[in-house]
Design brief:
The protein is an alpha/beta fold. The protein has 6 helices and 7 strands; from the N terminus they run αααβααβαβββββ.
Length: 180
């Protein structure tokens, strides 16, 4: 092919890993990082932006959220997640993405205290809020697993990243790490 392919543009618009033999994208990435965020200890993080902004998350076009406790606090889900899950997922969605961002929520319906229909209604609100925050099209789905022992911890998987939390992702409140 005589034409130069702009792999950077492909990564940004479509959220896929595209590299050219002369592209230094992969060698410039530092994907190895981890943080411990504990309540009542000195913590440099005040919100999810502090955690994710310094690191590259492009390319990304999808995420899987595994959290059996996502609706532990159904009544206050929206308020609790305005500075937590919404902010975290919104930070993962590239501003340059031109295809829908796909979010799959995976839970164990048998042990979450929520019926499938109620969960689907809540996910419609999650979709609406994420689209409002990001200005991007977001597709949200739900699936169920059957092994709560295997999936006790809360995880977010993207194309190239793995977020792990034994406490869940609702850890910030009013600019501080909240107690469990």
């Amino acid at each position: 092919c005589d034409e130069a392919v702009n792999v950077s543009e492909i990564r940004e618009k479509f959220g896929v890993l595209a590299v050219h033999i002369e592209d230094e994208f992969l060698s410039e990435q530092n994907f190895n990082f981890g943080y411990t965020i504990e309540p009542n200890q000195e913590c440099k993080f005040k919100c999810w932006s502090d955690v994710v902004d310094p690191k590259p998350f492009t390319p990304v076009n999808a995420a899987i959220l595994v959290d059996n406790f996502i609706w532990k606090n159904k009544a206050d889900f929206h308020n609790e997640n305005t500075e937590n899950l919404y902010e975290l997922i919104a930070k993962l969605i590239p501003k340059t993405l031109e295809v829908p961002f796909q979010l799959l929520v995976n839970i164990d319906f048998r042990n979450t205290g929520i019926e499938k229909q109620e969960a689907e209604e809540k996910l419609k609100k999650v979709k609406k809020n994420l689209e409002k925050i990001t200005g991007k099209t977001v597709e949200v789905g739900i699936s169920s697993h059957s092994n709560p022992k295997l999936f006790h911890s809360r995880v977010i998987l993207t194309n190239h990243h793995y977020f792990y939390s034994d406490r869940g992702f609702t850890i910030f409140k009013n600019g501080k790490v909240k107690d469990a």
